[in-house]
Design a protein that fits this description.
Blueprint (H helix, E strand, L loop, with lengths): L2 H13 L4 E4 L3 H7 L3 H8 L3 E2 L4 H9 L10 H15 L3 E5 L4 H12 L5 E5 L9 H14 L3 E5 L4 H12 L4 E4 L3 H6 L7 H5 L3 H8 L1 H29 L1
Parallel strand pairs: 1-2, 1-6, 3-4, 3-5, 5-6
């Protein structure tokens, strides 16, 4: 699907009163699900999975099963919010440090004045391990009755929470969007468009946040990406 296809699919489902879950696998998520059956089920149980990472787009092409292109959570938070503003579907932003979701909401409303933000929340670190905190986060989302929820808590935490929330909000769409809320808030700078399209966004983020991302990108994700592309090439040649 293209990004506009995704938006059209979500809007059509919302008009029918049907909810869903969008997961946006990148190299890091793919590496995790290759080793963790529970995490893999979270991806497989989602209604839509889109390639948030150029290595996945390249791998799909090498396998002979190409996708139209990369679709990121950082893009979907804008395009889906635009549609939500047009149809007056209330949205909820969940994730990021204190104040980030609120700033993202202000920026989204600034671009789409008709957008209805039902609520924002920035759960404390480790909230999912404290029953009272987890219940509070879940109850706050449910109480506002949003039709579209962006959950930026990192995989698989965000998608575990989404799986629980879907039971209470069957007519709501959820997007596991990682850092998209911080990008929308402007607290984290996104790579230039040329870097995004050439598959070098990870390098831009590594230079911007080396202390947080060096181990993950260089020791975990880069070897996995190279292995993924090699295996995809071999399978594509002999399939």
């Amino acid at each position: 699907m293209t990004e506009s296809d995704v938006v059209d699919h979500v809007v059509a489902a919302l008009k029918r009163g049907e909810g869903g879950h969008i997961v946006t696998p990148n190299v890091d998520i793919s590496r995790i699900v290759s080793r963790d059956p529970e995490a893999r089920r979270l991806v497989e149980d989602a209604d839509l999975a889109v390639a948030d990472g150029m290595p996945l787009v390249w791998a799909a092409k090498l396998l002979g099963t190409p996708v139209p292109g990369r679709i990121t959570g950082a893009d979907l938070i804008w395009s889906l919010s635009e549609a939500a503003a047009f149809y007056r579907y209330p949205v909820y932003l969940l994730g990021g440090p204190p104040g980030v979701a609120a700033q993202a909401a202000c920026n989204l409303i600034g671009r789409y004045p008709g957008l209805v933000v039902a609520g924002v929340d920035a759960p404390t670190l480790g909230f999912e391990d404290v029953p009272e905190s987890y219940a509070r986060v879940r109850d706050d989302v449910i109480a506002t009755g949003p039709r579209l929820v962006f959950v930026g808590l990192g995989f698989p935490k965000q998608d575990r929470l989404i799986a629980a929330l879907r039971e209470d909000l069957p007519g709501t769409w959820f997007v596991g969007c990682g850092s998209a809320i911080a990008f929308a808030a402007g607290t984290v700078q996104r790579a230039p468009v040329w870097a995004q399209r050439s598959g070098l966004e990870w390098l831009f983020r590594l230079i911007s946040e080396p202390g947080r991302l060096a181990r993950r990108y260089l020791m975990d994700d880069l070897p996995y990406a190279l292995r993924l592309l090699t295996v995809s090439l071999v399978r594509g040649l002999f399939s």
